[in-house]
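Incident log, structure service

09:12 report received: a user says their structure output differs between two submissions of the same chain.
09:20 pulled the input from the user's history:
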Amino acid sequence: MRTTLEWQIATIQSIQVETSTVKTFTLAVPSWMPHRAGQHYDIRLTAPDGYQAQRSYSIASEPERQGVIDLTVEWLEDGEVSSYLHEGLTTGDQLEVRGPIGGYFVWEASMNGPLLLIAGGSGIVPLMSMIRHRAKTGSQVPTRLLYSVRTPEDVIYDEELRQRPAFRDGLEIFYTFTRSQPAGWTGYARRIDRQMLSEVVEPFGKEPLVYVCGPTLLVESVANQLVQIDIPPARIRNERFGPTGGTQ
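09:34 re-ran on a clean worker, output below:
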C-alpha cells in the first residue's frame, strides 16, 4: 500500500451523464487504495506551455468497489477544469490524479448513528459515497437524506435514489425543490429552514451524526440552524464549495 500520495495517471473507463450539467467519470486508478466515504481526489491539468490547473472532486463510489473510483463533476461556466472534463474528454483518455485525501468529512459504517445527511446541489456527491458504503456493508443505521435542488431535473443520481427506499434498510429520502416541483408534489418546496430541519431530524432526537455538503451559503445557514434546534456542534460536520472551485 502506498504510504504517500503521489500523482498518477488514471484512465477514463466510462462517462455517465447525470443531469444537463453533471457527469460521473469512472476512473481506473493503477495504484488504487481504498478510500473512506467522504474523501476526495485532486485532478491536475497541465497545458503544453506548462500552465497547470488543479481542483478537488469528491469520490462518489463506495470504498468496497475496487480498482476504480467515480468522480461526479458539475460543469461550471467559469470552471477551467470542469469545462475541460465535460467538453474535452472521452472514454480511454487519461488524467493526472492524486488521492484519496481528507479525514474530517468521512463516515464509516462502524460509526454510531443515527445519521442525517443534508445536501445542496452537487453536495450530494460525498454523501452518495456514504449511502453506497452503508448499503454495501449491510448497515442498518437509521439514516435520513435531505436533498435541496432547484428542479426535479437537477437531481443527481435520480434513478438510484428512487430505488434506494425499496431496500427497506432504514434509509429515508426527503427532497426540497426550490424553483419548480413535479406535478402533484406535496413535499418541501423552499430553501432549507429551521422548521424543515426540525421535522426531518425529529425521530433522531438531539444526537444524530450530521453531514452537510453544498454551496457555502447553504452549508453555513444549515449548520447555524441545526445548532439553534439544539444539535451539538460536535455532531455536525460540514463540507462546502464556492462557485469557482474547491471540493464538490
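09:41 both user submissions now match this output. Likely a transient worker issue. Closing.
09:42 reviewer note: The CA atoms of residues 135 and 167 lie 9 Å apart. The mean pLDDT is 94.
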